[in-house]
Amino acid sequence: MRDSTSTGNRSDSDLDLVHASKAGDVNAFEELVKRYDFRLLRLTRHFLHNQEDAEDAVQETFLKAFENLARFQERSKFSTWLIRIAMNQSLMKLRRREVHSAISIDNDLQLNDDTLPREIVDWTPNPEELYRTSELREILRKALQMLKPSLRMVFVLRSLEELSAQETAEILDLTASAVKARLWRARLQLRERLNKYFKGAIDFAGIEIVGRGNIVQAAYRGRETHV
Predict the structure, then answer these.
(1) Could you read off the pLDDT of 173-195 as tens digits, one per residue?
(2) Which band of pLDDT confidence, cut at 50, 70 and 90, is reported for residue 127?
(3) Is the Cβ–Cβ distance between 180 and 187 less than 8 Å?
(4) Parallel, antiparallel, or unpaired: how do β-strands 215-220 and 208-212 relate?
(5) Nearest of 100, 73, 89, 78 to residue 41 by alpha carbon
(6) Separation CA 107–CA 148 (nearest Å)
(7) Residue 224's beta-bridge partner residues?
(8) Out of 2.40.180.10, 1.10.1740.10, 1.10.3720.10, 3.40.30.10, which CATH number does the structure's domain 14-97 have?
């Protein structure tokens, strides 16, 4: 058993730190917090669009994880288990905001998740590219807030956090096909909302998003914005 005053080694794997934490090493758990604090804050901020709520959700996530560490059976990656807790805490935040609405990962959609359309019409720019441009990020943020939580959650995990379909399925307790279907619906709804906006504000057909390494250019009507 490690001494509770020992310091976690940054080369230790997550499972090494989990085992040490279960054995009473508080510093080992603090190392896990350091590893995932920023990632969880980014994720919850994408989902909640509120800095204070996001910070609270992250704190509550680590508290829940610490209190329930003995229940982590190591059947999935520690990060997967931790992100699932973060998503549940975020949903609780949404419930408090919208006390008159019943929000759930699983039951806020009346749809067949395993049914995908045969063809997805090409659309430029796509929502992921728009999100990475500073000038248009606020537009997409507002559109993203209008999605039902289960669609927003899949979009955040798959498109913004770039988790795999399988990782997302594990976190949300869905099938991979359900994840793909929800992601398609999220993208479609975002495109529809953004299309309405651009028809009224910008020549939508003239927008082109081009990725060049870390540079994303938003060009429309002869104007470019570098971010």
Answers:
(1) 999 999 999 999 998 888 888 77
(2) low
(3) no
(4) antiparallel
(5) 89
(6) 10
(7) 219
(8) 1.10.1740.10
